[in-house]
Amino acid sequence: MFDRPNIGWESEQLIEALSSRNCITRATAAEVLGSKKDRVAIKPLFRLLRDKDGSVRWRAAESLESLIGDEDIELLLSGVKDEHEGVRFWSVYLLGRCRFSKDVVPYLISALKDDNHEIRAIAAQSLELVGDERAIPPLLEAMRDEWKGARLSVFGAIKKLVSENKNKIDAELFLKGLEDDYPDVRFVSAFFLGELGDSRALTPLLDLIDDINEDVNVRQWAAYALGRMDDDRAFVRLIDLVNGEKSPIVRRMALRSLGEMALRNPEYVKQAEACITSVLEDEDVILLGLAQGMLARLQKNR
């Protein structure tokens, strides 16, 4: 039996244990060093980010998160460009979770183009945590990522940044995004134009929803965005979609948007209820369920 590292060990002894051939010993030593709050462990723990064992790298990063201060920023910035993927990943991770006086946004933006898809994803998550709206344009561009996991992280980051910085964001970025070659950029742009509620988006969104050759997911979120416009033209188009759209997912979103618009605008309630009631015998059971739920909400809102 070997003596497992514990809080009673001196920092020097724990640092020596980071070189053990046993991965459990290395991971435990890394964890205990974080608990001891001894800054002498920062560089040895940083070197451990190259460990071949993922659990050891994770323990090292966890301890670094509790130890790293403003004076250690250059260590992490160098790590963003390190040749070892483990060092790059955890450096990007820590840049998002620790607070520094130096501007880290440009370094995290550069990591959105890393060769490793997991690093691109964690870069988006770190940009979300930093909360700087300057990251939105490069994040929108990153919606072209080939890996779905990265795109999900990017979308989550943009969503939070838009929510927290609505007054600082020019909708022109997303208006241009509607014309992008990548469907995921177009759908995200449509979604956030709805969130921003910018009236300039109405005509482009109507054009998008009318394009039957457009990606169905893009058209779905264009229908969502129209429901946020609170405009007669949007309302009439949503009724048309509920009544005659061939794509089930676009039609379902149109019904939801129509109902949400009526909930906010009492003058639309009578027409919306008539339209939604007309689908109660539809063969699409999902649409039927949405209709029943929306009618109940409209009735309760009276």
TrEMBL record:
Domain of life the protein comes from? Archaea
Q: Identify a single GO molecular function assigned to this protein.
A: oxidoreductase activity
Q: Which Pfam families match?
A: HEAT_2, HEAT_PBS
Which segments cross the bilayer?
A: none
Give a short account of what the protein does: Catalyzes the hydroxylation of the N(6)-(4-aminobutyl)-L-lysine intermediate produced by deoxyhypusine synthase/DHPS on a critical lysine of the eukaryotic translation initiation factor 5A/eIF-5A. This is the second step of the post-translational modification of that lysine into an unusual amino acid residue named hypusine. Hypusination is unique to mature eIF-5A factor and is essential for its function.
What this protein is called in its record is: HEAT repeat domain-containing protein
Phylogenetic classification of the source organism: Archaea, Methanobacteriati, Methanobacteriota, Stenosarchaea group, Methanomicrobia
